[in-house]
């Protein structure tokens, strides 16, 4: 059974223009109902023992102090957290106070993932974030004083951003007491206001060359600052890789609760309703919160493990995957692997190991989709 769990908290003060998560903005009137319902959904899991717990959103720290206290209490009641459990919580800089951080630490949260995105005032405004560069720096310091393992998210290739703007973000990050950075190029997702604004010609995406240049700048700056690049978008100091995400990339199962939450348990993938109000209504009337479900075949599972695993910079051992899944990946993925080797996207550092080449790191999605077949 899974040893990892995800809880989705959908509340945000404002919906950022690029955000495509399952989120409700300015609907704090739903929080009471959410707290009751999340307890119900967690009850159904029957108190599993877990090694990693990730509370994401939305903005989990959007709860006020009393709501947060109740939420944390519910979570502790409904899981058996192992003694070394990595308990991550996403937070936005504008919500961080020493009191809130102390409360999180007191309940066992030992990793905070801060949605910093940038330290540049114009870029933050452009991304419609609710914090200033000073808020972001202060939030990192406040968290790090109490919870050592701080991760930040940074976005690059925002409209109008220059390489030197981005290098400035990386320099500021380097001077902060952080253990982990996740960094992504801005994407324009259908259904977001950024998508419509781009269609109207209000916003322009960065060119592919610009994205690549910025990504390479991130790799150079973060590795130069002592971070280990361990997954396409993830960099860790002091060996503090995100154990919860490793669980996903290594194809282990996980529980997930809350609106829009996707889980993988016992060979089945299920996704809850994305709409918070529909999710609440269904749970309150004792209906299933699940909107989609699919049984994953053994072959699909093996292919997905290869496709996600190859995102790890160290690559994957196909012999190990074959013995764990019972599927002869080297046979069924022979063409995909050979094509990627001859395109220079993959390397074969050992007879049964494959890993992305320098060029392959830039085109990991191509390699992954070939492995998926
Ligand atoms: S704060 Fe995060 S989750 Fe909330 S709307 Fe903005 S990007 Fe989405």
Overall pLDDT = 97
Instruction: Give Rg in angstroms.
Output: 21 Å
Task: Name the helicity range.
Answer: 40-55%
DSSP summary, beta strand count: 17
Beta-strand proportion: 15-25%
- Kindly report the name of the CATH homologous superfamily of the largest domain: Aldolase class I
Strands across the major sheet, in which order?
9-10-8-7-6-5-4-1-11
- Backbone shape: globular
What are the low-pLDDT stretches, counting only 5+ consecutive residues below 50? Answer: none
CATH architecture of the largest domain: Alpha-Beta Barrel
Q: How many alpha or pi helices?
A: 16
The CATH topology of the largest domain corresponds to TIM Barrel
What top-tier CATH class of the largest domain fits best? Alpha Beta
How many domains? The number is: 2
Bound molecules: iron/sulfur cluster
How far is the N terminus from the C terminus? 27 Å
What does this structure look like?
- With 373 residues, the chain is of the alpha/beta class.
- It folds into two domains: 4-249, Aldolase class I (TIM Barrel, Alpha-Beta Barrel); 298-372, Arc Repressor Mutant, subunit A (Orthogonal Bundle).
- The protein contains 16 helices and 17 strands.
- The strands form four sheets. Strands 9-10-8-7-6-5-4-1-11 form a nine-stranded mixed sheet, with helices on both faces. A three-stranded antiparallel sheet has the order 12-13-14, with no helix packed on it. The chain has a three-stranded antiparallel sheet with strand order 15-17-16.
- It is globular, with a radius of gyration of 21 Å.
- The two termini are 27 Å apart.
- Iron/sulfur cluster is lined by residues 12, 15-16, 19, 21, 23, 57-59, 92, 115.
